[in-house]
Phosphate transporter
Amino acid sequence: MTLPPTRPAETAGTPETGAPINQWKTLDKDLKRIVQLEQAGQFVGRPLLSLGIALVFIVLAGVAASVIVGGTPNALVIVAAAAFGAYMALNIGANDVANNMGPAVGANALTMTGALAIAAVFETAGALIAGGDVVSTISGGIVDPASVAEAGIFVWAMMAALIAAAVWLNVATAIGAPVSTTHSIVGGVMGAGMVAAGLGAVNWPVMGQIAASWVISPVLGGVFAALFLAFIKHRLIDAEDKIAAARFWVPLLIGVMAAAFSAYLVLKGLRKLMEVDLPAALLIGLVFGVLTVFLTRPLVRRQSEGLENRKKSLKKLFGLPLVVSAALLSFAHGANDVANAVGPLAAIVHAVSDGDTAAKVSIPLWVMIIGAGGISFGLVLFGPKLIRMVGSEITKLNPMRAYCVALSAAITVIVASGLGLPVSSTHIAVGGIFGVGFYREWQAERRSRALGLIKGKPLPPEERKRRKLVRRAHFLTIGAAWVVTVPATAALSAAIFLGLRTLGN
């Protein structure tokens, strides 16, 4: 027996025209509206879900602190500081880590999911394995410790600095500006210190060096990145036999990367495990670099077999080194910056528990776990926005350009350490991206001028303006955010300190 059709009215025709009648038309419209509402709900609810998870993490940090220090006098102060420390760590993950992963994602060497996973693992590993177990509570001598020797005043100053830095990082992430975590903390400590102990308590020569780093860091990063890109263009991209040139130069470039990152990690990321000076770090880097060259030569030769003699083939050879460099940058960032982020929290715990202040204090393990966990959660929940901006909205990156940015970051830190210059890893990485973009603009301008001379007429100004390869809006926004970071966090911290001291009294 033949079964009747499921929707017979759809095939039946009208008596006049014979056209099919869809008796499910109204139902289909209603279902479509429901699907659209569900999609809209998911779009609106996703940020709320992230905020909810972040809030749960902050509450759990406070609960954990209450369990650990429950019997300590003024334990409520430590609980509040732990909650604000968790908030600070979340904002570091949302803002600062984008500089490590943005170039790799923008170059399509990593997916966003892969970048988030690698960064979360290596940031946490860097913080817990190699993070400094002792931190300067006054952020490198910004404020004279003797000027805030009273434990109560010291606690409120550190609390104000912590809150101000966290709020500023939150604002910077919202406007799409990668800023320096260290500079945020420095500004917070300076603002609270000035209100607590006066202008004379601030070490102004050190502040002058930090202000100079606003220019030094991005310029050095940009110059090194542009020089590496120029070298790759001259030796590889413009070579007649690109594959042969790649087999010779790519292992050497990877060796330079290995040497730079080895020295970088020894200097900045492994202070907890070993303490070495710059010459010893450079020697360690040289050994690792030479070994890497010998190990990667056969790998590059095997990977290059069958590739066509064109630029697109070269990009494939830089993909894996770029991923490794992003992971190493995340490890070093976790080791180096987490301690700065949780320094005020560690100082508050020490001052409340021991009743005194100190220029340097030990970081309890639970404090470091809050910092590491917060960075990972902040990265996964809120990091993609800034990762996309850094990786693809400033200028177009490919694996070779992104590789130059990562390499310049490591080398710039080493050079700055040798010269005794305070630099920001955030400023260096973003400066490297701008350096690559401006170098490409310069090359495009040269080609346009040469083409104009050949054809007998130059390009009109409108067309030359249209061919800009760096988005000026981001350049101005990020530059302004860098300059404003210390004054903004100082003013905010001063206001918060006054409020906290009033409430405390």
